[in-house]
Design a protein that fits this description.
By secondary structure, the chain is α+β, with helices and mostly antiparallel strands. 25% of the residues lie in helices and 33% in strands. The strands form six sheets. Strands 11-10-16-7-8-15-12-13 form an eight-stranded antiparallel sheet. Strands 2-3-1-4-5-6 form a six-stranded mixed sheet, sandwiched between helices. Strands 21, 22, 23, 24, 25 and 26 form a six-stranded antiparallel sheet that branches.
Length: 603
């Protein structure tokens, strides 16, 4: 049996693009876990999209054997590489729950970002030993002294305790390994207690079924034993137990303190949820490990195939993606404008973008996306409460007592010279100021309560624009609050287009209506008949634009004669256009459904 005192479980946490995956590469290289000839950049990011964008989408766990020269002992370091984006904060929290320590990586050129702070709070909440690291010190633009002062202030430590490294060149990485061994406590746990194992991630293998990544907290899990997933109340048998090194290495068992994988032959990933507790059916634990919850989608959008014949292919592709991503929800929906598609639930806008890109890249599908919306909570006149995921499902306004929308607690970190612009933007987005404090003489942390619906479309892009790219944003769900919201319908040639309907605050309704109708006037193709573009609340039209028809000069062939001849021909043309208007259909281009992304309503 492995001596628990030689095990160290740790995670690398950082803001996107601060060098987390590069540092993981150097650790794998220095410990010779991966041969140099087999080494790839961002080795643990095995998805093409992860490597291309420089982000980690799925958690990865790898066992590293570190031969320490000082005492001649071989230590087992279990490295858990976590996603770095706010959309995946629940997965990050469960990965951290599987560790005793965290290597906090901060870019020497960018300093502390909003997601860095969120990661620090998550690590602190899980009582982890934090090892602060400043990366990219080899760059000319590195601000080592300033960033050290920021980190020291936030963590309440001496600057001497902060490690300075270059993950790209490998400088200082050996010091991190040494600090992990000396600073991170070995895992607690009793191998003789009833089995308790935490599921911190899972993925689907087309040949073996679901592979669950686990940390054994107490007890022992063996091949052939019958286990129970306590949160989902699901029973299964363990077909295989092992560790990643980084390939799958089969073992007879995993004991308290170890990190590895189990294969159960389960074909539905929905039966194995991140954060669930595994116990033995024969000798079950009475307590579920804390922190378990089902990831709940925060943003909903319609996905429709551009080619009508691809509906079945889209359904199969979403089914396959959901095998690897239990947080993806999808249900069939139909649209008069876009045909048959699916209403999908996502953790956030990045999650939505990743799913869309994977559908287009991996499954060669051309996708049209409808406006992203949040889940609204409506109280009807009969006091019943319903949740609505798309504007077209909204009841008539007079049937509602109140409408509630989700709020988030947003943290923005920005250079001090942009404070005024950031606060102006947050106020325009109906934000409620909460707090502001300087994290260094040059940088400020600002906190706001903001409606989620105001964040999901263009808030991040506007924030980057007004701060010259220097600001960063992080947010977490807060609560539902009552708001004066209305449903804004868009009508094209008298036909209501559900996919263009949106929910807006009453004060902003006219401004948004003008913006949408003006944008659509430039996007919708001209027809042989006049096309009216209208924005309406209920039956009241509040904005209108007109697309003039093509007009053939039908009088060109008439020479001389009475004026009534011309009038007769023009009247005939007018009647024909009137008839065409009744039976004509306007084909909307794809960009019409994306026009809501770039509304300039912040003037």
């Amino acid at each position: 049996m492995i001596d628990r005192k030689l095990i160290r479980n740790f995670s690398i946490i950082a803001h996107i693009d601060h060098g987390k995956s590069t540092l993981a590469d150097r650790i794998l290289e220095i410990t010779e876990t991966v041969k140099r000839r087999e080494m790839l950049d961002q080795f643990l990011d095995d998805m093409e999209l992860e490597r291309e964008r420089g982000i980690t989408i799925k958690a990865h766990a790898v066992r590293v054997l570190y031969n320490r020269k000082l005492d001649g002992m071989q230590y087992i370091l279990n490295l858990i590489d976590t996603p770095g984006h706010v959309d995946f904060s629940y997965e990050v929290s469960r990965s951290l729950a599987a560790c005793e320590g965290a290597v906090l990586v901060v870019d020497a050129t960018q300093g502390i970002q909003a997601q860095t702070l969120a990661s620090v709070y998550l690590a602190t909440n899980n009582n982890l030993e934090i090892i602060p690291v400043i990366n990219k010190i080899d760059l000319k633009s590195a601000r080592i002294k300033e960033v050290s002062a920021e980190l020291s202030s936030i963590l309440g430590i001496n600057e001497e305790e902060i490690l300075k490294v270059s993950a790209k060149t490998g400088y200082g990485v050996e010091d991190i390994l040494e600090r992990i061994v000396t600073g991170v406590p070995y895992p607690e746990g009793d191998p003789d207690s009833p089995l308790q194992a935490l599921v911190f991630d899972s993925k689907y293998n087309p040949y073996r079924g679901v592979v669950a990544l686990i940390r054994v907290v107490n007890g022992v899990i063996r091949t052939g034993s019958t286990i129970k997933f306590m949160g989902e109340n699901f029973i299964s048998e363990v077909e295989e137990v092992g560790v990643y090194g980084p390939g799958m290495i089969k073992k007879d068992s995993l004991t308290a303190g170890e990190v590895g994988y189990i294969i159960t032959g389960i074909k539905e990933i929905g039966n194995i949820m991140v954060g669930d507790t595994i116990t033995s059916l024969k000798n079950p634990s009475q307590k579920i490990l804390p922190g378990y919850k089902k990831p709940k989608p925060m943003v909903y959008s319609g996905l429709f195939p551009a080619e009508g014949g691809d509906y079945e292919n889209l359904r199969d592709a979403l089914g396959k993606l959901s095998l690897n991503d239990s947080s993806l929800e999808f249900t069939p929906e139909s649209s008069s404008a876009l045909g048959f598609g699916f209403r999908c639930g996502f953790l956030g806008l990045l999650h939505m973008e990743i799913i869309r890109e994977r559908l287009e890249r991996e499954y060669k599908l051309k996708i049209i996306t409808s406006a992203p919306t949040v889940v609204y909570r409506l109280t009807k006149s009969d006091n019943s409460v319903i949740e609505v995921k798309r504007p077209s499902d909204f009841p008539e306004q007079e049937k509602l007592i109140k409408i509630e929308e989700p709020y988030v607690y947003a943290t923005i970190i920005t250079p001090k010279e942009y404070i005024g612009d950031v606060m102006k933007l947050a106020n325009l987005k109906r934000g409620e100021f909460k707090d502001m404090q300087y994290i260094s003489p040059e940088r400020v942390e600002i906190k706001y309560a903001l409606p989620l619906s105001e964040i999901i479309v263009d808030f991040f892009n506007l924030l980057k624009s007004i701060t010259s790219g220097f600001a960063s944003l992080d947010y977490e769900p807060l609560e539902y609050r009552e708001a004066d919201l209305v449903k804004l319908d868009i009508l094209i040639a008298g036909e209501r287009i559900d996919e263009l309907s949106t929910i807006v605050h009453r004060e902003k309704a006219y401004q948004v209506a003008r913006e949408i109708t003006e944008k659509l006037r430039k996007i919708v193709p001209r027809q042989n008949f006049e096309v009216a573009i209208q924005a309406a609340i209920g039956k009241r039209v509040i904005a209108k634009e007109r697309i003039a028809p093509y007009r053939k000069d039908v009088t060109a062939g008439l020479y001389g004669g009475d004026i009534t001849r011309k009038r007769k021909v023009l009247e005939k043309q007018k009647m024909g256009k009137k008839k065409m208007k009744k039976i004509g259909r306007v084909e909307l281009p794809e960009e019409a459904f994306m026009s809501f992304y770039k509304l300039d309503i912040n003037k």
